[in-house]
Write a structure and sequence with these properties.
This protein is an alpha+beta fold and 477 residues long. The strands form two sheets. It has a four-stranded antiparallel β-sheet, with helices on one face. The protein has a two-stranded antiparallel ribbon with strand order 4-5. Helix 5 packs antiparallel against helix 11. The longest helix is centred in the C-terminal third of the chain and has 99 residues.
């Protein structure tokens, strides 16, 4: 900071020259500006002669300030000024401002003051616009006061209508509930009759019993405890009625057939392994025969006979026994084959019947479930429609009851609502035509220009010094 003072002192003439030039320019500009005249109209907020709920205290002065200074009010004042030819159609009404003057010590009644200030280039126009603004403010206050009388008139006219509406809506809710109960009972009875007719045509418990018996017939599974979903008679019939299922019988029969087939094949092999006849042979040793041959002339016959043997055949008892066993086994094997075909036929028929009954049971249970769901859906639709309509009527009734309660409380007050329809705002002082302008103020403009010129000149001097310092530092480096 100490280094800046010599720089500023060195450029003091330049700074002084710049400040003087700016001050002169500001003064010349102030002389060329149009004069501004200010006119003020004063309003006072008056308290009402009495206060009720329908005629409350006046709006606060801050509220009036926001209303009277709003863009909507300024636009209305501008349009009215143009209609009265106070200003041209393309000309502005000037600057509109408000000032509030409140008592330092609150008193009774409390009467704050609002100043409506208008600044424009013409003194006559300033006073005319200020008075117009005050008149429109009084009319706006009267409009708010009139709202209380409209509320009272509305209460007196609407009270009997609201009462009749409450009674009508209560009757509508009662008739709606009765109609819903009637339709619900009729719908429930219709669906119950349809379900009972369906159950009469299709006994699902009987179908389940038949399925159980078929399963028992096929698998032979017997439970010692009653099955759920079946009646007591069906359980008694199912317990012990079937000891062996068809599948078990078929498996046992096929085991017997395989065993019998194996036995037949084994016996065939054994029969083939044993001869049917047994052959017996012995030498010729009969003495009488040899004696006769010895007396024969031909000695060669004896030699041939000595080499021969006698042979005989007998039935083999082992072969005969095996053959008998083979015949018996073959008969038993062939007797078992028709039984197998019969059991397979019974199983096939039982499986077809089981499949048919199962599909029928599934189909009818699905139909019964669909009927119950359709009944529930229809009843739910009735309940939903009833709830929606009743809720709407109940909301309307609650709203009407709230209005009726409010009107009942204010009915007597409405009869006491005053005939007072004057505005809470009064014109305390009208605006007069100003004699002297309030602006522009040449002294303030000149002083401000001088200060701005000094700051700008000092900034320029410091900037030039900084540039020279940087150039010097660069050339030295």
């Amino acid at each position: 900071m100490g280094a800046l003072v010599p720089i500023l002192w060195k450029g003091r003439y330049l700074i002084g020259l710049g400040a003087a030039v700016c001050a002169l320019a500001g003064y010349l500009v102030s002389l060329s500006m149009n004069p501004v005249y200010e006119a003020t109209a004063t309003l006072i907020v008056m308290p009402p002669r009495f206060t009720t709920e329908l005629r409350p205290n006046p709006l606060s002065v801050e509220t009036y300030e926001r209303i009277l200074g709003s863009d909507a009010m300024v636009t209305r004042v501008t349009e009215e000024a143009r209609n009265r030819q106070i200003v041209a159609a393309d000309e502005s009404v000037g600057l509109l401002t408000l000032e509030i003057h409140q008592e330092l010590e609150p008193s009774t009644p409390y009467q704050p003051v609002i100043d409506l200030i208008v600044q424009t280039s013409s003194p006559e126009r300033a006073s005319q616009i200020a008075n117009l603004w005050a008149q429109m403010a009084v009319l706006e206050g009267a409009r708010f006061t009139e709202m209380g009388r409209e509320d009272a008139r509305f209460i007196l006219e609407e009270y009997p209508n609201i009462r009749e509406r409450v009674l009508e809506q209560q009757a509508r809710i009662g008739s709606l509930a009765a109609e819903f109960d009637r339709r619900k009972a009729a719908t429930t009875q219709r669906w119950e009759n349809a379900i009972n007719d369906f159950r009469t045509r299709w006994n699902l418990n009987s179908l389940r019993n038949q399925l159980l018996m078929l399963n028992l017939r096929l698998s032979g599974v017997v439970s010692n405890s009653p099955r759920s979903g079946l009646d007591e008679t069906a359980n008694r019939e199912s317990l012990g009625a079937v000891r062996h299922g068809l599948y078990t019988e078929l498996a046992e029969l096929q085991t017997r057939i395989r065993h019998q087939r194996s036995l037949v094949n084994q016996l065939k092999e054994e029969v083939q392994a044993h001869p049917q006849f047994l052959t017996l042979s012995k030498s010729i040793s009969d003495d009488a025969l040899w004696n006769q041959l010895g007396s024969a002339r031909d000695s060669g016959v004896a030699e041939r006979l000595s080499a021969l043997k006698l042979e005989s055949q007998e039935v083999n008892p082992v072969y005969q026994h095996l053959l008998q066993q083979l015949a018996d086994a073959q008969v038993r094997y062939e007797a078992l084959l028709p039984l197998e075909e019969h059991l397979q036929s019974q199983i096939e028929e039982s499986e077809k019947e089981l499949s048919r009954l199962n599909a029928l049971l599934v189909e009818k249970e699905a139909e019964l479930l669909a009927m119950r769901r359709e009944m529930d859906r229809e009843l739910s639709g009735l309940q939903r429609d009833y709830d929606l309509e009743r809720e709407q009527l109940q909301r309307e009734l609650e709203s009407t009851l709230a209005s009726f309660s409010l009107l009942s409380e204010r009915y007597e007050i409405a009869q006491l609502a005053g005939e007072e329809h004057v505005s809470d705002l009064k014109i305390a002082a009208s605006a007069i035509t100003p004699l002297h302008p309030v602006g522009p103020r040449a002294l303030w403009i000149t002083a401000g220009s001088f200060l701005v010129g000094m700051i700008l000149s000092a900034t320029i001097v410091l900037g030039v010094a900084l540039v020279r310092h940087l150039e010097y530092t660069g050339s030295k480096a």
